[in-house]
Amino acid sequence: MSARATAPIPAAARLLLIDDDTDLLRLLSMRLKANGYRVSTACSIASAHARLAMETFDLVLSDVRLPDGDGLTLFEDIRRHHPALPVIMITAHGSIPDAVDATTRGVADYLTKPFDGQALLDRIAKALGNASSTSIAEGDRADWCKAIISRSSRMRALLAEARLVAASDASVLILGESGTGKELLARAIHNASARAQGPFVAINCGAIPDQLLESELFGHVRGAFTGATSTHAGLIQAADGGTLFLDEIGDMPPALQIKLLRVLQERAVRPVGSTQASSVNLRILSATHRNLEDALGNGQFREDLYYRINVVSLDLPPLAERREDIPLLAEHFLRTLARRYGKDVNGFAADALETLAISQWPGNVRQLHNVVEQVCALSTTPLVPRSLVERALRAQPIEALSYAEAKQRFERNYLIQLLKLTAGNVTDAARLADRNRTEFYRLLQRHGLRPEPFRAENQPDEEQTRSPSRRPA
Question: CA dist 468 to 19, 219, 299, 425, 460, Å?
Fold first, then answer.
């Protein structure tokens, strides 16, 4: 059997193999690793969810029949939370109706056991090529998104979607709370697009008075209004050949919404006071923290413009929903600020970092940067103490969530966040949850979670030693 696929293999693509047949998992892992892939394995839906929560993958290869459920149900879960992740299904019970059903639901491909090894390699390479998958794991940071610091699986899935949409010229609406990094994501999309060599022009529609916003966006000719002593090219013209990012577009006044809609429809802009329109070639990226659907209902935002700017929407999670990124971001900010201020500060004390990780962050990443800047400026020791962090946080609550509250917010997700935060250390995770180790292990077992996958990523998989008894595929 040939060991080389006929289609090109993306460098170091990361695959997740899911099957309760441990012998098959071992064989497939060896074969795929020999062909340049990085492989992780899972023997059940529960262990697959744990893997997906802590790692980024370029493709999933799953059996249809698993000990704790249906592989197609797992596929639906993957599609909801990782819509850009291709899935290939494998089964010994294949039939034409099954294949048709799977592919119409969005499965990338479908194989029936027994299958030819070369055919599997070809199908994987083809699915990866169609998805244009991009690994963004630590150490694989691509230039287009290097400004976005994250190890969160949710952020990685979002970046994979952003990478896909960047290849098109579709308008993108970025949603998220203030301080989550909407402009950083917009810049990343621009950097990954065919317009990367063109200008990236950003404007905050909510930060400029209404009477000035029109002139800033569309420009004006000399004499258009009192004080217009010269012709001024607007930001739309400045973005010609590149990308225009309209931050807080939900704050744009209705009169300007009409003019912007005309630009999008006609691909031409007419400066204030001019009778001539100039053609423009640009892509529009927008962002808002407001609920535009509510604004549509009360007439504050035009429906036709909404559908023009919202061809694709990307939703940035708040920092409180990606807590595993807090230590990473805090250390990154501290290094950068210490260099800027010439301070000999090189890290946080363990209890200071824990305080940051369990605090509330209504201001998101922007607020975290502000807190780190304050402690850097005030620190007199190489390690930032907890007292400085608490002072910077002031009246904000810094206690871990209680078990009862965590249970209300979906107990399973809470447990995953704790395991991520502590890198799979059950003692530390149990302490943060205010539970003893035995009870915490029971909670993990109830949700089909194991701490091993959350530990060092390069440790050998333990699924094969702890997998359930084999079932016929």
Answer: 11, 67, 57, 24, 18
CA distance 141 to 17: 24
Angle formed by the axes of helices 364-378 and 325-341, nearest 10° = 40
- Pick from 94, 25, 97, 33: which is nearest to 64 by CA? 94
**φ/ψ bin of 69: left (φ > 0), alpha (ψ from -120 to 50), beta (otherwise):** left
Eight-class DSSP state of 288: E
What 3-state class would DSSP assign to 296?
helix
Cα(344)–Cα(356) distance, integer angstroms: 21
Question: What is the C-alpha to C-alpha distance for residues 241 and 238, in angstroms, rounded to an integer?
Answer: 9
Cis preceding-peptide flag for 114 (omega within 30 of 0): yes
Query: Could you tell me the two tokens for 12?
Result: 């170091």
C-beta atoms surrounding 372 within 10 Å: 26
DSSP per-residue letters across 404-462: HHHHHTTHHHHHHHHHHHTTT-HHHHHHHTT--HHHHHHHHHHTT--SGGGS-TTSPP-
Residues 6+ apart with CB under 8 A from 116: 1
Angle among Cα 266, 310, 73 to the nearest 5 degrees reads: 145
Can you tell me the distance from the alpha carbon of 350 to that of 333, in angstroms, rounded to the nearest whole number?
Answer: 17
Give the residue from 378, 383, 388 showing the smallest Cα distance to 341. 378
Task: Specify the pLDDT at position 52.
Answer: 83
Helices (H), 55-180: 71-81, 96-104, 117-131, 153-166
Whether this model's pTM surpasses 0.85: no
Q: How many helices (H) and strands (E) does the chain have?
A: 21, 16
Residue 295 C-beta-side C-alpha neighbours within 13 Å: 20
Place of tokens 């971001």: 329
From residue 465, how far is each of 41, 43, 470 by CA, in Å? 12, 11, 12
Query: What are the tokens at 61?
Result: 């290869």
Q: What is the pLDDT of residue 340?
A: 93
Quickly list DSSP for 186-255. Answer: HHHHHHHSTTTTS-EEEEETTSS-HHHHHHHHH-B-TTSSTT--S-B--HHHHTTTSEEEEETGGGS-HH
CA distance 381 to 15: 44
Tokens of 438: 């035995």
State pLDDT tens for residues 40-79. Answer: 999 888 888 888 877 778 899 998 888 888 888 888 888 8
468 with 19: CB under 8 angstroms?
Answer: no
β-pairing, 109-112 vs 38-42, is: unpaired
Q: Of the candidates 316, 406, 311, 397, which has an alpha carbon nearest to the alpha carbon of residue 358?
A: 397
| Secondary structure of residue 308 in the 3-state scheme | helix
Averaged confidence pLDDT in the chain: 82
Cβ neighbors of 190 (< 8 A, separation 6 or more) are: 166, 196, 200, 242, 243, 245, 283, 285
